[in-house]
Amino acid sequence: MVKRYDFLVIGSGVAGMSYALKVANAGKGRVAMVCKTTLAEANTAKAQGGIASVTNLKVDDFEKHIEDTMIAGDHLSDRKAVEQVVRNAPSQIAELVKWGVNFDRTDSGEFDLHREGGHSEFRILHHADDTGAEIQRGLMEAVRQNPNIDVLENHFAVEIITQHHLGVEVTRRTPDIECFGAYILNPETNKIDTYLSRVTLMATGGIGSIYATTTNPNIATGDGIAMVYRAKGTVQDMEFVQFHPTALFHPGETHPAYLITEAMRGYGGILRLPNGEEFMHKYDERLSLAPRDIVARAIDKEMKIHGLDHVCLDVTHKDPEETKHHFPNIYAKCLSIGIDITKQYIPVAPCAHYMCGGIKVDLNACSSIHRLYAVGECSCTGLHGGNRLASNSLIEAVVYADAAAKHSLQHIDEYSFNERIPEWNDEGTMTNEEKVLIAQDVKEVGQIMSTYVGIVRSNLRLKRAWDRLDLLYEETEDLFKRVKATRDICELRNMINVGYLVTRQAIERKESRGLHFNVDYPPVTKD
Asked: Mind telling me the catalytic residues?
């Protein structure tokens, strides 16, 4: 079946939804939003801490936020991208508020601002400790009420469509690759339909599920990055995987692990060993509020030195009622497993959290493939450089969604539907009965990535990961060619592709920088 939409949005987090709302409200055509599960399930909803924006001009300014971002990114960030996000943040916050998103305010009506690791000022807007869920709620209501947006839940994008599907040879050196839409799996018919579009936006989120433990939901399998890579688009900075220092250590909860927001350290939480000993003074003068890469490596080292499976976060010295007020969900979650955080330490350990690289885009969110935009975590804008500054991701998503909307609306009339695209051909394939193989391979990808391409790496570990992933790739591609496409085998393909990209680009970086720490390349000591 062939369907036509002016705008095809693949993904349903803050990036995809804010873009969809902006183009839909412009009246330039119909929008299809493809969600692999439900509209509500996205990395956005898991974001607890908040969204960064300069709002208190009495003490804060754009230059401070820009400098904090550059320092956290180990000066690998693209300064133009940083300036674009920081300077446009306040107007996008105003737009979120207009769409119905509520941020906590003080008694005087001003935003109640938090501070997080790497920030020199209090500039984190929040909604208690479930900011992402509140943003997701507000945007979902707006999307569902918009008559120009069709929400396609439980649909899965298999591949984006380019000249390759017309029989044209496309390589990474082809200068004019063009996106004509996507092949999308319909769960009701189990058929792959052809969605033709004038403009396509990739907003598929992160890659956390390629690791054994992650704060991301199970759907974070790097689909958009893998699809664009297979279509010969440019993918960059994949070696920079951010491990959140403080996920709740609770064996059995690994996908997703429960996140203990960085705002809790901004509130005064202290990292300790289980015996109560502090340790961050050995690693950074900013102590528990150092940037995430430093804190995660410090915790990893302490766990290895002492043979621990976790360290602890202590807020027992803070006022109990204030702690419950600021962090009601964390309090309730910990209480559900027998931990009263006002009296007991919280057991925490680092786990995979955020991809700083992805589909390379320019300041308009244009990828290297014509008519294809990418926003949110699946994109690489250059904002994060070697390490994301806390709470910069949500604001990046809305600022770049705005840039993508403006650019695509300016050019949409130049594009037409390509009616020559063939429908998906699965003749000769059989129904896949080898579910056990796929499930086992998914586990193996997680084990490979966590063991060999984790917080601390080495050339030997990276080579071993490369070899293991290469074998899985060959086996999975062979199976994919013989069976009908299903979501589980497509996700496995994507996970292997993304794991390969993280590993390869980690091998190519011959230094320890930002989130990429290789013991064979000791970091340069700064005087």
From this structure: 292
